[in-house]
Design goal:
By secondary structure, this protein is an alpha+beta fold. It has helices at about 10-20, 25-35, 35-45, 50-60, 65-75, 95-105, 130, 135-140, 145-150, 160-180, 185-195, 240-245, 255-265, and strands at about 110-115, 120-125, 215-220, 225-235, 245-250. It has two domains: about 10-75, lambda repressor-like DNA-binding domains (434 Repressor (Amino-terminal Domain)); about 90-265, Beta-Lactamase (2-Layer Sandwich), CATH 3.30.450.180. It comes from Micromonospora zamorensis.
């Protein structure tokens, strides 16, 4: 897991940086965490050593990723509180089974499991609908699903409403990068901003659906398919790896798309 922090920085400096990133004053955070502003000031300046309980309490109020909470504990001289397992570890077998049920149960509609950097972890076979015409360099692991979506050699030429879909994805990534201060996400955002915007494709379709959500309008052969996307996070994660994972699932936005996907059935696996 990549973190925003550099090794060896004092816990007080890390705390101050995150507090400022969250736009909170010392008084705001002290009230939220139930500690005096004077004591918080001493912690930030290194005059007072916080207990592990206080570090975790402050990290929770700052809504820090689990990996950053571990980093802050280490900086304070304490052991990490949250484990970080590989997905193949036996401890995560129930999690892997649940994910597989979600992905398989979503067929014949596409669904993927991605990590905190939008790298593909798993996919159901229906995702081949989106990857059939992508160039091999975008499908060589590790596959980044945002890069695959917006790159001219990926899905972008077939996205009929590319300008609005691109704006939607960039806004999500921008918010995620700001919330986590993750340099990997910031670099990815800079990269994706440099891709063609698709302004030459035409104005987005104006219909009832587009007034409610931003659909993905995708050309498959001579048909236009419309999808609504959802994001599923895993509740109350206590493992660093699990906390960074999400299921991105696509549902048909109209009966025509639903019928087409059922007619296609389950295509040959492309990235599963």
């Amino acid at each position: 897991m990549t973190t925003r922090t550099r090794p060896g920085r004092p816990v007080g400096e890390l705390l101050r940086d995150w507090r400022r990133t969250r736009g909170m004053s010392q008084l705001d955070l002290s009230i939220e965490a139930g500690v005096s502003a004077r004591h918080l000031s001493f912690v930030e300046t290194g005059r007072s050593r916080p207990s592990p309980d206080l570090i975790l309490r402050l990290a929770e109020r700052l809504d820090l990723p689990l990996a950053e909470r571990n980093t802050m504990l280490l900086a304070g001289g304490y052991a990490p509180a949250y484990p970080s397992h590989e997905l193949t570890d036996p401890q995560l077998a129930p999690f892997r089974s649940a994910v597989r049920q979600i992905l398989d149960g979503h067929s014949p509609y596409p669904a993927v499991l991605v990590d905190q950097h939008w790298q593909l972890v798993e996919a159901n076979p229906a995702v081949a609908l989106f990857t059939a015409d992508a160039k091999p360099h975008l499908l060589t692991p590790p596959v980044n699903v945002l890069r695959l979506s917006l790159h001219p050699d990926g899905m972008a030429p077939r996205i009929l409403n590319l300008p609005e879909w691109r704006a939607h994805l960039l806004a999500r990534l921008r918010q995620q990068a700001a919330a986590t201060s993750d340099p990997v996400l910031s670099d990815l955002l800079d990269e994706l901003r440099g891709y063609p915007s698709g302004d030459d494709i035409g104005a987005p379709t104006s219909d009832e659906l587009s007034r409610v959500v931003i659909p993905l309008r995708y050309r498959h052969g001579d048909r236009e398919l419309a999808f609504i996307s959802t994001t599923t996070l895993f509740g109350t994660p206590l493992d660093v790896t699990v906390s960074g994972l999400a299921v991105e699932a696509f549902f048909p936005a109209d009966p025509v798309t639903a019928a087409a996907l059922h007619a296609l059935g389950t295509p040959a696996a492309g990235m599963a």
